[in-house]
From TrEMBL:
It comes from Eucalyptus globulus. PROSITE patterns: BULB_LECTIN, PROTEIN_KINASE_ATP, PROTEIN_KINASE_DOM, PROTEIN_KINASE_ST. This is Receptor-like serine/threonine-protein kinase. InterPro entries: Bulb-type_lectin_dom (IPR001480), Bulb-type_lectin_dom_sf (IPR036426), G-type_lectin_kinases/EP1-like (IPR051343), Kinase-like_dom_sf (IPR011009), Prot_kinase_dom (IPR000719), Protein_kinase_ATP_BS (IPR017441), Ser-Thr/Tyr_kinase_cat_dom (IPR001245), Ser/Thr_kinase_AS (IPR008271). Its EC number is 2.7.11.1. GO terms for cellular component: membrane. PANTHER family: G-TYPE LECTIN S-RECEPTOR-LIKE SERINE/THREONINE-PROTEIN KINASE SD2-5, RECEPTOR-LIKE SERINE_THREONINE-PROTEIN KINASE. Pfam families: B_lectin, PK_Tyr_Ser-Thr. It is an enzyme of class 2 (transferase). Its main location: membrane. ATP binds at K534.
Length: 793
């Protein structure tokens, strides 16, 4: 009997405790809901839907409707995304205006603006519709007639109804896209601001003059009818039983209209699945290629390009061009800005040699052309863009060359685009000269302002500290811990729990090495801010040194061709490193895969790696020898820019030190001879490894290949010098049409590689000199005969 009573208590106590937070039934005149930690809400009779406050962050609340019985508590309607309600805010049912949302000081944040009399109560219905009704149960106002970004089964949209996407996944303010049933009967998708002409729609039913009502029926079908109820257009047409699945159709923040289902099973945690079949698909099916408007940014912002994801949802992703960075780091869809000074148009100071063209296959901006030339070669197209100060990108396809200027719009990367984009980037990546002049003129004024602000800030912080201290002594407040920044490296310190959450329990492994594994994670909003989290497997003396070495080496570097360390965790037995996520994987995958990368892209990658190594050896605060340069440690970002990774074997050099002694490190095949001869190790070991890597980039195959059809080609450096010595460099790239047409560059790269792999470290050039030779700033002298070739003849 005692156990039975205890069981009843265990059920009743939670219900009693949550009675204030979640009430069933109606909200009567004068009553209110309060925004607090309990997320106070009003439930529908079945408990499937809730209306009330959802906590969106520290002290911020959203007035919303959501699915209550599923783990995600998915929001389907909200009103104050642009002005979140602080703790203690109330939504009250009033006789003259209906619902009124006010903050604790009485400031109105939102109201239903009810234009009717006789209001008696508000109710959350089992359909997901929230209504204001009279005593005789006549609906005076309802949420179904005022949708935000989602529609539900039984919901209908009449003429001039608008569904508006939110800003981002977790930001419920208004976004860039709208789904409208126009008064002329056409159902369209627009990118805001609302255009003036129908041709600016990126999807439409073409039912002008006939369309009348959009219906989401109980069978899970979304379709458009005329005034007589005749079917005009099926937006989604799969029949899904509402008795088994929850359903919603939403215009998402990426501009795509999708339909989702979720099992109604008790405690189901399977999540929402998108309805997709031969007849039901997202609208539009590929927004990246659907955006072709003459005005506006396209699917992504200006100076970016759109790619379609490879998961079931195929959510589009937005990426910056090489040499460009996001305008808003929290929202990749807002476009990118140029990170370098544009090319000067002063003919007395030509800058043609200050720029390179970064190649991007199947990438285009169709609405940004200002000049087109036909019957041209790619070489002509390249030179024409480099010589034109207005040209930001050249696009070459089918012997046609298009020049494009910024801002670039409607960007997409898709196999259907074809051709290749050639993006102009300044070699030294310098900042704007124009702003530099203005900065010099206002330097003294700026310093005075900064000093004043700093002084005021110090006084304010001191006063604030005193207030917080006294307040915390007198009242039991708990403050959030501030973000911890490591002073030595300037990187953020994360807790193990934060990184476990970010990686979903270390779910998706990206790779594995001798000291640990790397996992994909996300910091902040879902599907943005991707990171790579490296986890050291065990805490031994060696792994502790490995961890300290990598944090020290990577944390003090800052170069576009080095992978950025964002933070780390050093907590108990846990040692983790947080890096920027490189979406195109390693150079090994790119170079030795099923399809050969283009010749120009391989040359660009060689220059990227050389610049990164030159920075490590000579420019960063503490000079660094990487010690393990190989294709697996060169990663590629979304723009195929190469970045050097894995500083786990790095050796730091003091300012007055040029060589060091250490045990053998690195990967066989890329190791310089001095590793095996008990010789002091210098930065020239990286030069040797780079030489092997450069040979692999030239020939697009591994340095050591047992399966080579010709025995002389098993060790590629032997074969490369043999071809160079015999004057037959063309044999190295004879199956590569692009490289064959650029044989002078092929020979230049071969000569540089042969200099880099000299057995005597003193004969190898520095990486700075190597970079200059690659960029054509200095001539490449004839390389000496390497000892390995001498012994083989």
């Amino acid at each position: 009997m005692a156990s039975a009573i205890l069981g009843i208590l265990l059920v009743l106590v939670p219900l009693l405790l949550s009675a204030e937070a979640q009430a069933r039934g109606n909200l009567t005149l004068g009553n209110s809901l309060t925004a607090n930690d309990q997320n106070s809400s009003l439930l529908s009779l079945s408990g499937e839907f809730a209306f009330g406050f959802r906590k969106m962050g520290q002290g911020a609340h959203l007035l919303a409707i959501w699915f209550e019985m599923i783990e995600e508590k998915t929001i389907v309607w909200s009103v104050n995304g642009d002005d979140l309600a602080p703790e203690g805010s109330k939504v009250q049912l009033t006789a003259n205006r209906g619902l009124v949302l006010t903050d604790p000081r009485g400031r109105e944040l939102w109201s239903s603006n009810l234009n009717a009399t006789g209001l008696a109560y508000a109710a959350m219905l089992d359909t997901g519709n929230f209504i204001l009704a009279s005593a005789s149960h006549v609906n005076l106002w309802d949420s179904f007639s005022r949708p935000t970004d989602t529609i539900l089964p039984t919901q209908q949209l009449d003429l001039d109804a608008v569904v508006r996407a939110r800003y981002s996944e977790m930001n419920y303010s208004n976004g860039r896209f709208i789904f409208r049933l126009q008064t002329d009967g056409n159902l369209v998708l627009y990118a805001t601001p609302t255009p003036l002409v129908v041709s600016d729609a990126y999807w439409a039913t073409g039912t002008r003059g006939n369309g009348f009502r959009l219906i989401f029926n109980q069978s899970g079908q979304v379709y458009l009818t005329d005034r007589n109820g005749k079917l005009l257009n099926k937006v989604t047409s799969d029949e899904v039983p509402t008795s088994v699945f929850y359903q919603r159709a939403i215009l998402e923040y990426d501009g795509v209209f999708r339909q989702y289902i979720h099992p109604k099973m008790a405690n189901s945690s399977s999540g929402w699945a998108m309805v997709w079949s031969m007849v039901s698909s997202p609208v539009p099916s590929n927004i990246c290629t659907s955006m072709n408007r003459d005005t506006g940014t396209g699917a992504c912002g200006f100076n970016s390009y759109c790619t379609r994801g490879d998961d079931q949802i195929q959510r589009p992703r937005c990426h910056c061009l090489p040499g460009y960075t996001l305008l808003d780091s929290t929202n990749e869809m807002n476009g990118c800005r140029q990170d370098f000074a544009p090319q000067s148009c002063d003919e007395s100071k030509p800058e043609t040699d200050q720029f390179v063209l970064r190649e991007m296959l199947n990438t285009g901006w169709p609405m940004s052309n200002y000049e087109r030339s036909e019957s041209q070669t790619e070489h002509w197209c390249r030179q024409a863009c480099l010589a034109d100060c207005f040209c930001a990108v050249a696009f070459f396809k089918d012997r046609k060359c298009w020049k494009k200027r910024t801002p670039l719009s409607n960007g997409r990367m898709d196999p259907g685009v074809g051709g290749k984009a050639l993006v102009k980037v300044r070699i030294n990546n310098s900042t704007s000269k124009a702003t530099g002049n203005r900065q010099k003129k206002s330097k003294n004024l700026t310093l005075m302002i900064i000093e004043s602000v700093l002084l005021s800030s110090c006084v304010f912080v001191s006063l604030l500290t005193c207030v917080i201290y006294r307040s915390s002594r007198s009242r039991d407040y708990k403050f959030l811990q501030p973000v911890q920044i490591n002073q030595a490296t300037g990187t953020r310190t994360y807790t193990y729990w934060e990184l476990q959450e970010a990686t979903d329990g270390f779910k998706e492994e990206l790779g594995r090495g001798a000291f640990g594994a790397v996992y994909k994670g996300v910091l902040g909003s879902k599907d943005t801010n991707f990171v790579a989290v490296k986890v050291l497997m065990a805490w031994t003396g060696e792994s502790e040194k490995e961890f300290e070495r990598e944090v020290s080496a990577t944390g003090q570097t800052n170069h576009k061709n080095l992978m950025q360390l964002l933070g780390f965790c050093n907590e108990g037995q846990h040692r983790l490193l947080v890096y920027e996520f490189m979406s195109n994987g390693s150079l090994a995958d790119f170079l030795f895969g099923s399809s050969r990368p283009s010749w120009y892209k391989r040359v660009e990658i060689a220059c990227d790696v050389a610049r990164g190594l030159s920075y490590l050896h000579e420019e960063c605060t503490r000079h660094i020898i990487h010690c393990d340069i190989k294709p697996q440690n060169i990663l590629l970002d979304g723009s195929l820019t190469a970045k050097i990774s894995d500083f786990g074997l790095a050796k730091l050099l003091m300012a007055n030190q040029t060589r060091t002694t250490t045990g053998v490190r690195g990967t066989r095949g890329y190791l310089a001879p001095e590793w095996f001869r008990n010789m002091p190790i210098s930065s020239k070991v990286d030069v040797y490894s780079f030489g092997i890597l450069l040979v692999e980039l030239i020939c697009c195959r591994k340095n050591y290949e047992l399966k080579a059809e010709i025995e002389a080609q098993i060790v590629m450096v032997d074969w490369v010098y043999n071809c160079y010595h015999n004057g037959s460099v063309l044999q190295l790239v004879e199956s590569d049409e692009e490289a064959s047409r650029d044989i002078k560059m092929v020979k230049r790269l071969v000569m540089i590689a042969l200099w880099c792999i000299q057995e005597d470290p003193a004969l190898r050039p520095t990486m700075k000199k190597t970079t200059q030779m690659l960029e054509g700033a200095v001539e490449v002298p004839v390389p000496p005969v390497p000892s390995f070739f001498t012994t083989s003849i």
